[in-house]
Amino acid sequence: MAAPPLVFAHRGASAWRPEHTLPAYARAIRDGADYIEPDLVMTRDGVLVARHENNIADTTDVARHPRFADRCTTKTIDGLSHTGWFTEDFTLDELKTLRAIERLGHVRPESRSYDGLFPILTWDEIVDFAATESARLHRPIGLVPELKHSTYFAGIGLPLEDSFMAACARHPWLRIAPLEVQSFETANLRYLRDRLGRPANLRLMQLIGDADAHPADDPTLSYATMTTPAGLTEIARYADVVAPSARAVIPLGPDDRLLAPTSLVADAHAAGLLVRVWTFRPENRFLAADFRDDAGADARNPSGSIAEMRAYLATGLDGFFTDDPALGRAALAT
Questions:
Q1: For strand 80-84 and strand 73-77, is the pairing parallel, antiparallel, or unpaired?
Q2: How does DSSP assign 256-325, residue by residue?
Q3: Nearest to 143 by CA among 184, 203, 196
Q4: Which of 128, 17, 31, 37 is nearest to 320 (CA)?
Q5: What's residue 202's pLDDT?
Q6: Which residues, including other chains, have CB under 8 Å from residue 51's CB and lie 6 or more apart?
Q7: 243 forms bridges with which residues in the sheet?
Q8: What is the pLDDT of residues 87-101, one digit of tens each?
Q9: How far apart are CA 148 and CA 150, in angstroms?
């Protein structure tokens, strides 16, 4: 019998608390997540911290700190221009003076009410928290870190992968905990596979972006090519999981309603890969039109979100990312 699909808490329970904060992870675990997700970026002094991007303008209160005003700058990262404040320009001690804010405040007012309360977490702190919660609850709490902008960070002398492997060696929990390492790039996953091998608790997850886009480390390779049967076979040489957008599994038509499923899940399974998709969010604005109600674009729609997840689960997914793990768990209930 196939294992039931797993629930991945996207940046924690980010529908309810500012993402990548301890309360977001705590709520996700309470609500039944199998894995919690930290996106990992680097500080100036080489510490892995959890932020969705290295640009922290929209997820911290850095703009309210006059002492850091002169660090606002513009950088090109993975070919795109970004203006803001960047983790690699701060030491960990400096980042610890900042507080998280809700990125989607107009959509998630409850989460916004916690703005300014929670500090930025290090990867080490998240690992210790997951280990503690696992012992307390007598169930494994998986970790699904995403290595962000690996090529960019390597180019400025702050390679994420070596710091990540050092953490794996440093923390006994990471040698036994369910661990899935994800990236939109390919070379970093190949690097980790070569050096970490295939321990029983570790999977590598190849994230898939828009069909016409490409990994930052290989502009000659499109994500469309990577999701052909031949491309999936190549991914299976170094990764265990492929993780496309949910809309790559069941696309939306011009009216935002579901079309027929693609063959991606079946093709990936044929290549020996597990399939996780991202990301289900509970507000009407993020749902396919099939599942929206008339409460307004920013309104929560739990029943619609559950119905949407069930439609996607019917394609044979092995797991999925959601901003609201309680609804994800409900979608799996029979």
A1: antiparallel
A2: S-B----SHHHHHHHTT-EEEEEEE-SBGGGS-GGG--SS-TTSB-HHHHHHHHHHHHTTT-SEEEES-H
A3: 203
A4: 37
A5: 98
A6: 20, 39, 41, 59, 60, 87, 120
A7: 207
A8: 999 999 999 999 999
A9: 6
Distance of alpha carbon 141 from alpha carbon 325, whole angstroms? 13
Contact status, residue 19 vs residue 113, Cβ threshold 8 Å: no
Cα of 162 vs its chain's centroid, Å: 20
Which amino acid, one-letter code, is at 188?
N
Q: Tokens standing for 95?
A: 């980042």
Q: How far is CA 68 from CA 63, 84, 98, 305, in A?
A: 8, 11, 10, 40
Whole-number Å distance between alpha carbons of 55 and 73: 10
Could you tell me what percentage of the chain is helix, strand and coil, using 3-state DSSP and rounding each to the nearest 5? 35, 20, 45
Residue linked to tokens 């399939």: 275
pLDDT of residue 1: 60
Both tokens assigned to 36? 């919690």
Q: Which residue has the tokens 């980042």?
A: 95
| Average pLDDT across the chain, whole number | 97
Residue 278 tokens, joined: 């991202």
d(CA 147, CA 42): 10
DSSP type of residue 3: P
Q: What would the pLDDT profile of 200-235 be if each residue is shown by its tens digit?
A: 999 999 999 999 999 999 999 999 999 999 999 999
Over residues 238-268, the pLDDT tens digits come to: 999 999 999 999 999 999 999 999 999 999 9
Show the tokens assigned to 256: 């935002």
> What are the φ/ψ torsions at residue 84 (nearest 5 degrees)?
160, -150
pLDDT of res. 2: 76
